Amino acid sequence: MKQALSAEASIVSVNTASDLPLNVLRGTGTVEWDGKNPALMPIFAFISIDETFLPNFGIRLVKGRNFDGNASDSVHFMLNEAAIKAMNLKDPVGKRIKVEGSEGEIIGVVKDFNIASIHETIRPLILSCNVADNHIVLVKTTGDSAHTSLAITKALWKKYAADFPFNYKFLDEHYNDQYKWDQQTAYLFNFFAVIAIIISCLGLLGLVSFTAEQRTKEIGVRKVLGASIANITSMLSRDFLKLVFVAIIISVPVSWFFVQKWLSNYAFKVDVNWKLFAAGAMLTVVTALVTICVQSLKAALTNPVKSLKSE
Q1: pLDDT digits (tens, 9 = 90+) for 169-178
Q2: 109 and 81 in contact (C-beta within 8 Å)?
Q3: Under DSSP, is residue 59 helix (H, G, I), strand (E, B) or coil?
Q4: Lowest-confidence range among 169-178, 249-258, 295-304?
Q5: 247 close to 200: Cβ distance less than 8 angstroms
Q6: Are 138 and 56 in contact (CB under 8 A)?
Q7: What does the DSSP assignment read for 227-275?
Q8: Which of 277, 282, 283 has the alpha carbon at shortest distance from 256?
Q9: Which of 124-133, 250-259, 272-281, 300-309 has the lowest mean pLDDT?
């Protein structure tokens, strides 16, 4: 089936594996190697691949060589950098290793790559080449020919494996499934942040309107005595901006704490930069200032004759 798929023009490459490269489920602690410290008991992720797996997924070989597709591959193993570190091996290539009773030789070391979501650290990984264990077919195609390739794959599956159901999924869908909760959380945060901003602006606008109404005659007297629109706007805005700055001083450390706590759920994460909080504070001040100035300008532009006519 692999040969038949590889012959199709719409298919770029084909390889087989015992697990999906984004979700390696199999693991083992039954591993022995030359010079092993009895105190070391690491748990390894374990996946069987074929000789085309590394080049098809762009996984870099750090030391040694790849599998060559010969029968001798069944007694050869490759390890990732995390496994070499966990085993405390200095020169791993050529060393003997026994995995779940199968003894063989380490022929190569691959660059660490994620075999789970970025919530988790990269685990020690052993790669074997036992095609009898490879029950997953990974077909690489282009976006334009995906439907054609899918139809061809389905037809060939019925030809070579008619007794088994044809189940398929695109790897990007598997990848997105790993972060579905994160995407939903981000959507909810954005949605409620917008709602909170709107409610805050409406509340601020209401307070400014109420204050301006209470000080209508004062504003009129000030204008008659020569106060400019800028003076009156500044007078009405000053007290509210003080409250905004107090809110920023309280919210920034609280936000920083919760962001750090949230990021601790990820093995791979960005550093929290103070510039992000500075930008958020500046945006808050600008939003509040615009909201305040809308009503302050309206009050400042009112004809003082109207506000003082009852006196």
Answers
A1: 898 888 888 8
A2: yes
A3: coil
A4: 295-304
A5: no
A6: yes
A7: --HHHHHHHHHHHHHHHHHHHHHHHHHHHHHHHHHHHTT-SS-----HH
A8: 277
A9: 300-309
